[in-house]
């Protein structure tokens, strides 16, 4: 802390403020020289030693800083601030015993000052000391930091101390609210903007960038801010730019441990293990037991899905300092993501017991307790954990889909899975976010794969914004295959692109295809070169921009497959597994980067121009209240305008002019058959044909829509109705399954699937559908139990059939057909050997009963 609160004569205070301004502006050399000159003159003013030592530390002049603090503790032996600064300086001079001695001296000083009124600097210093000693962070806030911000509302250091503590405990909300309370006149400190950037990094990249820009405007040599910039570049796989930014940091401080740790990360990612070891060694040169070095390397490798390597680094950090909580939290999360749940949960429980304020630890411990109510379904390849109720409804379908994905994708990419894949499906978005990221708030994520562990939101977690859960699991399992084949060493664009591509290979209604928004992005030049595609995921300006990153990545994979074959993808994954860079593998198996980028750009432009090639794409200049007549007049001058045709079709539906709506929708379908968004031709055609009683045409339009859209629930439901009317049970079953792939937690598709399966002579499917149907409280159980009893009887499961008919009679004791069936079962001579003993009618059907 650099501020001098009422300690110096005015003339010296003015001089010190000049030094303070130099420090905050990054002029560390001039700051240190000014402070040295004042100290040499014998000025008795402790903050000169503080600012001098901090400037020397910022420059990596650790030996000079040591001399400064040694003189400082001699001159001010009872200063808590001086001794805490000395503690830090001695550690960076690899003097652990001397550093520890300073903490012991601080403890003695604090005991003698318990009744004395402390200055703001002293209060903040005491809080820092208590945290070093493992004190409860909330008590430090309450006893040390909060009183400072309340009593001295213009003193920025109090707010900064609180924000740092909150961020260290992953409490971004407290950090943000604390920084927002800083008066405008006190926001000229680079640390203020740096800490503000940290609060926004995960959920508001644009504001984070603004804050970083402001911090670096105030102090272009602010190393903490530069390190965030470097880290973001690493995240975006912009490794050359990351090296350049780290070079800026190392020019300021050639010994900066975190900068050297990031250089070790880059060496790892670039396949240079010798350089990785050398950079790590350099990072530990000044402080050989600094746990932050291995923690930083490991955490960033884990961000790159190198969880095994990341966990190994965390163990090295903890070997240096077993009390270093960031490494313990990160190791616990790494282990959970590797599927090593026993040790992972145990470790996070230990962190929580040590530090109850740690938000990640608290969230994970709370989640672990709630998982006791989940059900585990497993076979040789998968271990699926999901809520009990949901497991009973569609858990078996989850296993069947995953088995299919394994059979198709492992064979295609020649991958042998290493052990069972863990799949956790959560009915609560926050539970999903905590299991995945440690904190709530993972909006926009449907599922995440860590290599051998998949986490996903269930349909119930998404509320009204349903998404095709089968497509999500197929996508995430493709990540399992590609990450295992590449040993988790593939760039994000290739990983996401292959998963979206394989969604489309499995079902044309899944994945992402060209649409008007993506077309405009491409024509506006908002796409990235193929060799830089991962940068699209770094800081998207909007959720739609992020979706476009997935789409463009899938287009890149499609381009490679169409022009160079799927074997080129497999060869690329093999090379990546050996440690080759993505650009090396692209050159080796696809094309030189310049040629590749140019050809892919042309490919994207061609695909964009092919979407509605005959359409006029000018924005329609029509008022929101325009009726069909007004739109028709506008269309006279723009007859093939996409936006005008969509508006016209919607207006005619609103006005119930069905012949005119048909004409416009047919034209729209002819011009852009791929479009399935709002106001698409298929929806309008189906509605118009229905109103005009042309069932065959309605059905054709609905089927065309359903084939192109994996979330078209309205189309699926209407096709079921048409199928039942026509007794086309194959159509009913197909669309019931489509509905179940989007929302299995409504009884409607189960009821229709049960009926269709019976009609088609598929008893196993019918039995499963009736059992799922009975999980819904809104369903009348009598008929379901009775129909299930009949099916079980026909399949030879006499005891199970008897139980179901008794359950039907329990609710409807005068149900004559059920009585007849019960008598028939009672007369049966034998019971299947694999059946359970009979149960009372009061006993509910068990979830684990064999089918």
TrEMBL record:
<dbReference type="InterPro" id="IPR051685">
    <property type="entry name" value="Ycf3/AcsC/BcsC/TPR_MFPF"/>
</dbReference>
<feature type="domain" description="Peptidase MA-like">
    <location>
        <begin position="462"/>
        <end position="587"/>
    </location>
</feature>
<keyword id="KW-0677">Repeat</keyword>
<dbReference type="Pfam" id="PF13432">
    <property type="entry name" value="TPR_16"/>
</dbReference>
<dbReference type="Pfam" id="PF13485">
    <property type="entry name" value="Peptidase_MA_2"/>
</dbReference>
<dbReference type="Pfam" id="PF14559">
    <property type="entry name" value="TPR_19"/>
</dbReference>
<protein>
    <submittedName>
        <fullName>Tetratricopeptide repeat protein</fullName>
    </submittedName>
</protein>
<dbReference type="InterPro" id="IPR019734">
    <property type="entry name" value="TPR_rpt"/>
</dbReference>
<dbReference type="InterPro" id="IPR011990">
    <property type="entry name" value="TPR-like_helical_dom_sf"/>
</dbReference>
<keyword id="KW-0802">TPR repeat</keyword>
<feature type="region of interest" description="Disordered">
    <location>
        <begin position="826"/>
        <end position="851"/>
    </location>
</feature>
<dbReference type="InterPro" id="IPR039568">
    <property type="entry name" value="Peptidase_MA-like_dom"/>
</dbReference>
């Amino acid at each position: 802390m650099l501020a001098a609160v009422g300690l110096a004569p005015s003339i010296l205070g003015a001089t010190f403020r000049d030094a303070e301004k130099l420090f905050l502006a990054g002029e560390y050399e001039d700051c240190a020289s000014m402070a040295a000159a004042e100290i040499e003159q014998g000025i008795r003013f402790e903050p000169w030693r503080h600012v001098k030592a901090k400037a020397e530390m910022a420059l990596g002049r650790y030996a000079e800083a040591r001399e400064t603090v040694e003189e400082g503790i001699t001159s001010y032996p009872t200063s808590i601030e001086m001794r805490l600064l000395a503690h830090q300086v001695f550690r960076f001079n690899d003097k652990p015993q001397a550093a520890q001695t300073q903490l012991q001296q601080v403890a003695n000083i604090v005991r003698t000052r318990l009744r004395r009124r402390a200055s703001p600097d002293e209060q903040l210093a005491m809080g820092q000391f208590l945290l070093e000693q493992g004190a409860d962070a909330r008590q430090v806030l309450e006893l040390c930091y909060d009183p400072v911000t309340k009593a001295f509302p213009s003193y920025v250091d109090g707010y900064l101390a609180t924000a740092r503590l909150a961020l260290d405990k992953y409490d971004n909300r407290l950090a943000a609210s604390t920084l927002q309370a800083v008066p405008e006149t006190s926001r000229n400190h680079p640390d203020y903007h740096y800490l503000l950037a940290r609060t926004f990094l995960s959920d508001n990249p644009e504001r984070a960038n603004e804050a970083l820009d402001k911090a670096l405007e105030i102090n272009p040599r602010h190393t903490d801010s530069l390190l965030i910039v470097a880290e973001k570049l690493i995240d975006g796989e912009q490794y050359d730019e990351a090296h350049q930014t780290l070079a800026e940091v190392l020019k300021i401080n050639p010994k900066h441990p975190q900068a050297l740790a990031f250089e070790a990360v880059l060496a790892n990612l670039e396949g240079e293990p010798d350089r990785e070891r050398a950079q790590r060694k350099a990072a530990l040169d000044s402080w050989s037991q600094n746990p932050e070095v291995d923690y930083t390397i490991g955490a960033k490798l884990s961000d790159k899905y190198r969880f095994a390597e990341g966990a190994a680094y965390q163990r090295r950090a903890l070997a240096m300092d077993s009390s270093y909580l960031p490494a313990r939290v990160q190791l616990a999360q790494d282990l959970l993501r590797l599927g090593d749940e026993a040790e992972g949960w145990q470790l996070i429980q230990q962190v929580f017991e040590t530090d109850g304020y740690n938000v990640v630890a608290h969230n994970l411990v709370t989640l672990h307790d709630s998982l006791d109510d989940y059900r585990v379904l497993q076979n040789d390849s998968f271990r699926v954990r999901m809520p009990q109720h949901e497991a009973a409804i569609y858990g078996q379908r989850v296993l069947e889909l995953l088995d299919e994905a394994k059979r198709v994708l492992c064979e295609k990419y020649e991958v042998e899975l290493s052990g069972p894949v863990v799949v956790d499906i959560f009915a609560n978005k926050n539970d999903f976010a905590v299991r995945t990221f440690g904190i709530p708030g993972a909006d926009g994520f449907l599922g995440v794969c860590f290599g051998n562990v998949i986490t996903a939101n269930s349909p119930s977690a998404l509320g009204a914004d349903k998404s095709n859960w089968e497509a999500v699991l197929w996508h995430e399992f493709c990540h399992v295959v590609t990450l295992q084949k590449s040993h988790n060493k593939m760039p994000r664009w290739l990983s996401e692109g292959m998963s979206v591509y394989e969604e489309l290979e499995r079902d044309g209604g899944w994945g992402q295809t060209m649409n008007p928004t993506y077309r405009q992005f491409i024509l506006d030049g908002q796409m990235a070169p193929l060799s830089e595609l991962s940068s699209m995921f770094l800081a998207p300006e909007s959720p739609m921009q992020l979706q476009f990153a997935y789409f463009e990545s899938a287009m890149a994979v499609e381009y490679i497959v169409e022009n160079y074959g799927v074997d080129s993808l497999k060869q690329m994954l093999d090379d990546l597994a050996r440690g080759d860079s993505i650009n090396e593998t692209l050159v080796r198996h696809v094309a030189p980067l310049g040629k590749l980028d140019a050809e892919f750009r042309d490919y994207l432009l061609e695909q964009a121009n092919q979407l509605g090639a005959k359409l006029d794409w000018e924005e329609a200049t029509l008022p929101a209240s325009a009726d069909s007549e007004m739109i028709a007049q506008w269309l006279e001058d723009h007859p093939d305008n996409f936006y005008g045709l969509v508006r016209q079709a919607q207006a005619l539906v609103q006005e119930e002019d069905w012949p005119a709506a048909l004409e416009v929708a047919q034209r729209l379908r002819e011009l852009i058959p791929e479009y399935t968004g709002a106001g698409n031709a298929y929806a309008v055609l189906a509605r118009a044909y229905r109103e005009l009683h042309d069932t065959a045409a309605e059905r054709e339009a609905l089927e065309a829509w359903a084939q192109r859209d994996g979330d078209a629930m309205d189309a699926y439901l209407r096709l079921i109705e048409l199928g039942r009317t026509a007794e086309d049970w194959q159509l009913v079953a197909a669309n019931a399954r489509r509905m179940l792939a989007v929302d299995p937690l409504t009884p409607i598709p189960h009821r229709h699937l049960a009926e269709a399966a019976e009609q088609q002579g598929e008893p196993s499917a019918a039995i499963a559908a009736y059992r799922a149907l009975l999980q819904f409280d809104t369903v009348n159980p009598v008929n379901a139990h009775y129909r299930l009893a009949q099916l079980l009887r026909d399949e030879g499961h006499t005891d199970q059939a008897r139980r179901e008919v008794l359950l039907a009679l329990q609710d409807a004791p005068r149900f004559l057909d059920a009585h007849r069936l019960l008598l028939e079962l009672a007369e049966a001579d034998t019971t299947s050997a694999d059946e359970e003993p009979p149960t009372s009618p009061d006993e509910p059907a068990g979830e684990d009963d064999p089918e």
